[in-house]
Each structure stands twice: as C-alpha cells, then as structure tokens.
Amino acid sequence: MAATSSTRSDLPSGHFLNLPRPDIVIGGGDGVVDTTTLAAHDFDVDTRTGFMPPDPPLSSLPAQWQPWEAALSQAMIEKLQLAIKPDLTEEEIARSAAWRSMVRELPMLSITDLTTSELLLRRAHHVLVFIMHFYIHTLPLTAPILIPESIAIPLLRVSQHLQLPPITTYSDVVLYNWDLKAPAAVQDTDVPVPTPDLNNLRSQDLFTGTGDEEEFYLASARIELRGVEAIELMRATMDEMFVGDAVAVRRITAYLRSLGDVVQDLTGLLLDVRKGCDPDVFYHQVRPWFTGQDSGPGARAWVFEGIDEHPDLEKPTDLSGTSAGQSALIHALDIFLGVGNCITGPQEAARTGTGTETEKTDKSRDPQALLRKMQIYMPRHHRAFLRHLSANPRPLRALVELGDPDLAAAYNSAVAAFKGFRDAHIRIATIYVVGPASRQRGARGEEDEGPVKGTGGTPLIQFLKGARDNTADAMVAVPSPP
After folding, report:
1. How far apart are CA 68 and CA 152, in angstroms?
2. Distances in Å between the alpha carbon of 118 and those of 149, 176, 378?
3. 433, 460 in Cβ contact below 8 A?
4. What is the Cα–Cα distance from 440 to 86, expressed in whole angstroms?
5. How far is the CA of 310 from the CAs of 153, 156, 430, in angstroms?
6. Where does residue 266 rank: exposed (0-12), middle (13-18), buried (19+ CB within 10 A)?
7. 464, 425 contact by CB (below 8 A)
8. Residues contacting residue 77 through CB under 8 Å, at least 6 positions apart
9. Going by DSSP bridges, is the β-strand pair 145-147/302-304 parallel, antiparallel, or unpaired?
C-alpha cells in the first residue's frame, strides 16, 4: 500500500501504478488519474490508520492564533448551553451572551502562515467551526444569525484552502479530533508502528464535555481504524483484477470473503455505540450542536459578516451539518462493490428522470445523489480517492458477472455483510433520532410533522433505507457449477 516513486517495468505504462505522481495540492493533469496507488499519501490514506491521520492531530495552534484557542477553551470550560435547552436559566443565558461578546471582540487574525501546513489548516478549521457552532447555537432563537467577521473571514479563507465548507464536518469531529489515552511507547524506527488500539482513543474537543458525545465520535473512529483492512483488501483485489487469470479469481474470492468478515466487524462496532451513548442525551444535548443551516431551529439564514468586503470569497451554499454519511470509508465500500450501479424502482426514476412526475422530481428517492452531496464535506484528498476508485476501468461487478460461481457467492457474502451494516445504521438512527423525536412530540402534544430529518436536512430513515435497498439490489445470481 505504500506509494512508489518509480515506475514498475512489469506493468504496462498505462496502469495506474505507473502513472505520474500529481502535485498534492494542485492535482494531476487532464486525463491523468490523480494517484499512483489506491492507498497513496496523495490521497491522505495511511496504511495503519486509513482515512484517519497516522498520528494524533494537532491539539493546539501556535501562539499567533491562541485567541481562537482561548475562545474555544473558554466555551468548553464554561459549559455553554444550547439556546433550545428547556428551562434555560438567566445565569446560563448571561454566560453565553458574555462569551459571544468576547468572540465579537476577537482580533482579525491572518491565516497566511497557516497555509504552509495542511495540519495547521485542519486545526484552524476545527477550532473556528467549533467556535462558530457554539456562537450560533447559543443565540436566542429570535435573533438573526450573524457570524462575527473576526471568525467568519478567517474561517472562509481556511475553508477555501482546504476546499471544505465552513461548517463542522465528519472530519472535524472524528477524523481530526482524536488522541491516545496513553501515548504509544517509543519503538525502533525500523519496526512499523501498529494501528492504534481501538480502546486507547479519546476525543480532543467536545461541545458538551459528556462521555455520550465522546462515545458517539469514537464509535466512528473505531470503524475507520478497523476499516483499514477493508482498504487493503480493495487494493489487493484491484491488483488481481488487472491480472485477471484463474489464480487471480481464486484470490479475489478469498479477499471478498475476508471483506465480508471485516464489514461484519464494522457492524458490531457501530452497534457498540449503545454501550456508552444514551439516546436521549445524544438527541437533546449533543446532536443540536452540529446541526447546520438546513436543519437548524427557526430556518434562519447564516450570515457571514464582512464577506461583502472580500470579493475573492464566495457566499457559502453548502451548510448542512455533520453526518456519518461523510465517511469516505463507507463510500469506498459502496463504490468498490458497485452498489451505486444497482438502483431500481422509484430510486432509478428519480435518478434518470423516468417514471411518474412525483418519482422524477423526488430527488430524496435517490440515495446515490445524496451520497454524492455528502462528498462535498469530505477532505479533498479523500474525494480524490473516491474519484479514482470510481474510475477503475475494471469494476469488480464486471468480473463477478462473468459467471464464476465461487466468486459470485463470495461477492454476495460481502454485499450481504454491507447490507447488514446499513440495516444496523437504520437501527441506530431509529434509536438515537427517530425514537427521541417521537417521544418529544408526544410529550409536547404535537402532531407528527412528517419524516425526521438528519443533521444534513434530508429525510433520515428514507435516505438510509434507500441506501440499504440499493445494497440488497447489488446481489448477483450465483450460477450452478459446471
């Protein structure tokens, strides 16, 4: 999985392992796949930690940007409360107002020196979006959302460099928000550093300071780390597909069986979130902090103050909240198994514009369109990884459909495991979102307002069921042995 710096004489010049390496910032030239390997550093995919960085992310910015760090630290120390919290006290209201006043007085800091380091930019994005969400979600519900210029302009510039929306993303709360409980022992430099122990993780920053919030983030982090083996199996499979002989088919069959086992482990880790995260605590105290403009209370527009004085900055349009659907690992499994090419029924009508008028216009029926939208919120290198995977000239399903019965059965087992993962996701969404929302409406005597929406503003269960059904549709007929 390590990136190579020279061509391989045993492969044709057009093979992706022999294509020129692109610049990590500006990408490859036209017509050139922007990588040299499926899990290269060009994609920011590590052989030990996958889509998570190989070492714990920066926990603080240098002194030049300490005013931002201090503002975030104060918000967490003072345990600022959500404006939607029932029975919010006058003291809590005053404490939040004082903190927001301090944020409005922050100096305008330059980000020029941040642009020399991707790690600094990531930390800056993390800190600034946390401050912004603390600011927005403590505002009185009748107040307009005006993000102070001292936060808005640096955040927009940092986001421009990272090619990310100026809002909390999965990478802010999961990928770049972890550390080790106990630092790893110093090892011989010639010995590869192992993947971090799944039980030795902690989160760096939290909105609520609760173990429930931390467990919610760490459940995803553990899935990412366990998913490293899935990435390796995908890489090995793609190498064998290039060879394409009988031996390669046998190896791919074994890889797919192993992939199914890994995905079952991912399902177990997903369901384990129930051990440390209470559904009502999550729904009422944690989830509202990272909702976006699409699903925030009052349907208020988010205004980035000062943007009109900076013509080089564009008004943000992608302001959906954090979602597990922004995990590149799950998208990679979807693409690798060819699930997106197996849409049927109303979902196909929405995607292609065929069928009834309702089906043609209801884009919420097309999970693949929503998944593509989620990719906007991924780190740009991970988006490039998914584009490369999608551009594979030898898709796995094309090989499976040639008719080898053992290969087809192994493929189906991997797809079935992935469907099981999506079934589990529906269960978790029901437990942590649909259930608490229904109980809240009942306690208030409110009528059903229709499908519960995810933090990104999409009908949550409808989206998850659509993705699950697409996965089930990917199963192939297993031919009888000759």
Report:
1. 12
2. 23, 12, 15
3. yes
4. 12
5. 8, 10, 44
6. buried
7. yes
8. none
9. parallel
CB atoms within 10 A of CB 122: 23
Sequence letter at residue 324? A
Check residue 345 and give left, alpha or beta (phi > 0: left; psi -120 to 50: alpha): left
> Measured in whole angstroms, how far is the alpha carbon of residue 88 from the centre of its chain?
32
Joined together, the tokens standing for residue 164 give 């990310």
Predicted TM-score (pTM) of the model is 0.86
pLDDT digits (tens, 9 = 90+) for 377-413: 999 999 999 999 998 888 999 999 998 999 999 999 9
Report how far residue 384's alpha carbon sits from residue 160's, in angstroms, rounded to the nearest whole number. Answer: 17
Among positive and negative, which fits the CA dihedral 243, 249, 252, 254?
Answer: negative
Q: Are 452 and 434 in contact (CB under 8 A)?
A: yes
Q: Is 50 left (phi over 0), alpha (psi -120 to 50) or beta?
A: left
Q: Which two tokens stand for residue 85?
A: 């919290």
pLDDT value at 464 more than 50: yes
Q: Any residues with CB less than 8 A from the CB of 352 and at least 6 apart, and which?
A: none
| CA 211 to chain centroid | 21
